[in-house]
Amino acid sequence: MNKHINATPETGKEFYLNFHQKGKIVMLNLLKFKSKADYTNLESIKPQKDISGKEAYKLYTDNTLLEHNKLGSKILFYGASNNFLIGPESEKWDAVLLVEHQSVQTFMKFAESKIYLNNVGHRTAGLEDSRLLPTTEIKNYT
């Protein structure tokens, strides 16, 4: 089973091309945490004691929240999850996160910021698997 933690150059380019003129985007994050965070090759940010993947991800979000807010992005929802009501039984997610960004450019500014780059290791250490789905609002949906 393939794990998905980071975007590839190809998916990043496709994301930019498909969404760069669409205004606000909401990123749907499906998150599966490691039972124990893995800080291999991340010694400079490794906590003093072992922590769970969920705790490592919380360090990432706690340390980057102000940068999100500064750029006009915001967390719309963060909640626990488990089994799909409709969907494959083989996929189980620990949490769902919805983050609104004013634009693709805002998202890119965040992803290139020093705050993000100094803390993304906590995200990497904590996640077993993830999905990131950019979405845009459909106007006048009725």
- Can you tell me the residue ranges where pLDDT is under 50 for at least 5 consecutive residues? none
CATH topology type: Alpha-Beta Plaits
Largest sheet: 4 strands, antiparallel
- Strands side by side in the biggest sheet: 2-3-1-4
The portion of residues forming beta strands comes to 15-25%
The CATH level-2 architecture is identified as 2-Layer Sandwich
Tell me the count of domains: 1
Helix content: 25-40%
Structural category:
alpha+beta
- How many β-strand stretches? 4
Radius of gyration: 16 Å
CATH hierarchy, class: Alpha Beta
Q: What sequence of helices (H) and strands (E) makes up the elements?
A: HEHEEHHE
Estimate the global geometry from the Cα principal axes.
Answer: globular
- End-to-end C-alpha gap: 39 Å
Mean model confidence by pLDDT:
93
Number of helices: 4
Structure in a nutshell:
This protein has 142 residues and is an alpha+beta fold. The chain has helices spanning 9-19, 53-70, 104-112, 114-126, and strands at 25-33, 74-80, 95-101, 127-135.
Core attributes:
142 residues; alpha+beta; Alpha-Beta Plaits; 4-stranded antiparallel beta sheet; 4 strands; 36% helix; 23% strand; globular
Describe it.
With 142 residues, this protein is of the alpha+beta class. The chain has one domain: Alpha-Beta Plaits. 36% of the residues lie in helices and 23% in strands. It is built from four helices and four strands. The chain has helices at residues 9-19, 53-70, 104-112, 114-126, and strands at residues 25-33, 74-80, 95-101, 127-135. Helix 2 (53-70) packs antiparallel against helix 4. It is globular and about 50 Å long.
